[in-house]
Amino acid sequence: MNILARRAIAKPLVPGWTIPFEIATLFYRKQFNHAFSLPSMVQGRAYFDSLYTIAEPTLPVRIQASTAQEPRGHWFIPEVSSGSKTMLYFHGGGYAFYPTVSRHFIALLAHKLQIRIFAPDYRLTPEHAHPAQQEDALAAYGYLLERGAPPTEIVLAGDSAGGHLVLMTLVSLRQAGLPQPALALALSPWTDIGRRGASQFGHDRYDMVQGYQTLQYGQWLKGSGEWSDTQLSPIAQDLRKLAPIYIQAGGKEILVDMIRDFARQAKNQGAPVRLDVWPDMTHEFHAHGSTLQQSEQALTALLAAIQWTEGRVFDSIKETELSGLDSVFNKAQPEIIKPE
């Protein structure tokens, strides 16, 4: 009622927000806050799964549980697929949640991006601290290689904490002497598990995820081990000789400042990186699918990025090659950081 009353006098929380988008953002903020207030993680996860919204409920995507010979997870197989790529997708949820709504989002991506997706059920915190998630990510990537997928046919992707896992996995692959994937897609990625940037708390009033939650997620990730924020933050890693990284973020999300810092750091190290920021959007705005113009733009850009990799071999990336996506990305009028 407060939202509608404010709208009646032409005062949306953010100019340009639609009523459904504003309602959904505040609804999920309430869901997260209440889940955090419950006495156990089991109760928090059950509550978060008890009530949720989805943008496009009927999708032509078959969801299939992995077999006993595969890492635990699910395949999302769209009715229509183009190209030969396979996506390895790491879900978000602060490493602590894997809500049902996340599975709907992965199905949405499989449909919109016309790509087969394997999403592993990596171990969650606080029950399993680092390096459990990284071990599970590497095992899933290794499995795709073992079953015959060449690295040039693998797209690594994830949102929020899953975006964190994408970036850390790229580094771990290089350290392990394993080949890089064709492309890495990071949607609203968590790039510093400590404190970084004014938006981390300054954008609490806009975003569904809150600053205090990121610090708790960081503590759960570190567990009782002697891990530091620096050791577990993508922004503090050596980012050289990685796959091309395409990042999308919302200008009103709490993570946007640390995401910008990461993109600059990657660029300064010579990594092939591109960041597009939709100014009025919040964390993981992509989940609104066709119901929101900015979401549709972002999904179209992700599809273009995947199509851009078709038939290419990324043994030596030239920074100028990334400019091939300009004609598509610029339609969204995002903020861009890319190699010059």
TrEMBL record:
It holds the Pfam family Abhydrolase_3. The keyword Membrane does not apply. GO terms for molecular function: hydrolase activity. Gene3D superfamilies: alpha/beta hydrolase (3.40.50.1820). It comes from the Bacteria. InterPro entries: AB_hydrolase_3, AB_hydrolase_fold, GDXG_lipolytic_enzyme, Lipase_GDXG_put_SER_AS. PROSITE patterns: LIPASE_GDXG_SER. Residues 87-286 form the Alpha/beta hydrolase fold-3 domain. Keywords: Hydrolase. Coiled coil: none annotated. The active site is at S160. Belongs to the 'GDXG' lipolytic enzyme family. This is Alpha/beta hydrolase fold-3 domain-containing protein.
